[in-house]
Amino acid sequence: MTRSLSDRADSQSHHAREFVGRFLVLFGVAMVMLYFFANRPGVRLPLPGFWYRGGELWPFLGTILGIAGFLMQRVPQTISRKWKPSLPGQRFQRVVVYSREECHLCDVAKDSLHKFAEWLPEIEEIDIDDSPELIERYGTEIPVVLFDGVERFRGILNENLLKRLIEGTAPRPVSSKQTAE
Fold it and tell me: What is the pLDDT of residues 36-60, one digit of tens each?
């Protein structure tokens, strides 16, 4: 599998961020250690005058740099990048969400599905309160999300599992009708 240019750029950016983060951690630790060695009684290291005039600033600054470097290495790169499946295109022919009014989990599930609308067909919403049969079938276990007639989520829609479902499903072929639009 070949990697796209954006994947390579993201990888290089991640490595650069890790390198800078490591440097800041090491530099911060070195500043703190140097401060404590330089301020031992009777020890006068050959450091510039501003070092000794800076006083308590150096361990504080070293600690801040160390923390910043640590966080720089740990922040996931996916925060700034939108997830995309490896193959473009729409999956599934039909997505149905069984829900009801005033259902927070239903709203969250629909919002999650809309985040991935680029790879899903139009989402069909069915209010179970309109049908006694649906109320009996689903009751309080909503939302229920079906993809091409197969129930995939009940109660909570897990976005990581949705990503895996999209990634694991082949894109639908584009029809001549869709290309004409």
Answer: 887 788 877 787 877 777 778 888 9
Q: What per-residue confidence (pLDDT) applies to 181?
A: 52
Q: Identify the pLDDT of residue 106.
A: 93
Strand partners, 154: 144
- E strands within the chain? 95-99, 123-127, 144-147, 150-154
3-class DSSP state of 38: helix
Q: d(Cα 3, Cα 84) in Å, to the nearest integer?
A: 13
Residues 122-143: pLDDT tens digits?
Answer: 999 999 999 999 999 998 899 9
- The pair of structure tokens assigned to 18 is 């890790």
| In contact, 24 and 62? CB cutoff 8 Å | no
**pTM for this predicted structure:** 0.54
Closest CA to 92 of 125, 117, 112, 110: 117
Q: Reduced to 3 states, what is the DSSP secondary structure of residue 150?
A: strand
Q: How far, in Å, CA of 162 to CA of 112, rounded?
A: 9
CB 38 within 8 A of CB 45: yes
